[in-house]
Write a structure and sequence with these properties.
single chain; mainly alpha; MetI-like fold; about 80% helix; flat; transmembrane helix
């Protein structure tokens, strides 16, 4: 009974807080993936560019955000961003330290880390598209935007989905590091619950199970998306 009371939804139970924290983790990962998709697409375009300066900038981005520890990047964003915000605030007469919103910092930091990995996924996917198909599309009179919309982007997404699934799982795990900013996501809430009850093993096991539930569910989503896009292309070839 004590176990059910501890993990229940009553006045002294932590069940509701853990589920809310898991929802925050999920939303944080969604926001980070969206931010990463923007940066990843731009960096992939830079690395595929014929301009050497753009290629160097793209390579620098992926090297930094894949080579520097994720926790250090989160600290740099959190303290650096807050310092910049405090300086800007002082110009307008604000006093004291201005703290950046932890959710925003976490989404930006994890998103830019995700963007470095997504960039490599998109770059590899673009290179996997047969050049002959692009040339054939231009030969029949398709404009460049039409080629992108009807030929390049659908195939890039088909090739990129397995890699994006891996990046998603990585981002879910990276979201646990955002707990150092004080955001009440799953890891932080589990630490608070464990510290309040001195039942560390129980709450860390529950947190692990919730992380596994999220990753298992999203893995199924990505597998269905891969099957759907693969089916569409097989139908196209059959015709």
């Amino acid at each position: 009974m004590a176990l059910f009371d501890t993990l229940g939804f009553g006045e002294n139970g932590w069940g509701r807080m853990l589920l809310l924290a898991a929802a925050v983790t999920f939303l944080l990962t969604l926001a980070a993936m969206a931010i990463g998709a923007v940066f990843g697409g731009l960096v992939a375009a830079a690395k595929l560019s014929r301009n050497r300066a753009w290629r160097v900038l793209g390579e620098l981005y992926t090297t930094v955000f894949r080579g520097v520890p994720e926790l250090l990047i989160i600290y740099l964003f959190y303290f650096g961003g807050s310092s910049v915000l405090t300086s800007v605030g002082s110009w307008f007469g604000a006093d004291g330290f201005i703290e950046m919103p932890p959710f925003l910092i976490g989404a930006l930091a994890v998103g830019m880390i995700s963007g470095a990995y997504q960039a490599e996924v998109y770059r590899a996917a673009v290179r996997a598209v047969p050049v002959g198909e692009l040339e054939a599309a231009r030969a029949i009179g398709m404009t460049r935007p039409t080629v992108w919309r009807r030929v390049l982007v659908p195939q890039v997404m088909r090739f990129a989905l397995p890699g994006l699934g891996n990046v998603w799982q990585l981002s879910i795990k990276d979201s646990a590091l955002v707990s150092v900013t004080g955001l009440a996501e799953l890891m932080r809430t589990s630490q608070n619950a464990a510290g309040s009850t001195n039942d560390y093993f129980l709450f860390y096991i529950v947190a692990g199970l919730l992380y596994l539930a999220m990753t298992s569910f999203t893995s199924q989503v990505f597998q269905r998306l891969e099957a759907h896009t693969g089916k569409s292309f097989r139908r196209g070839f059959a015709r």
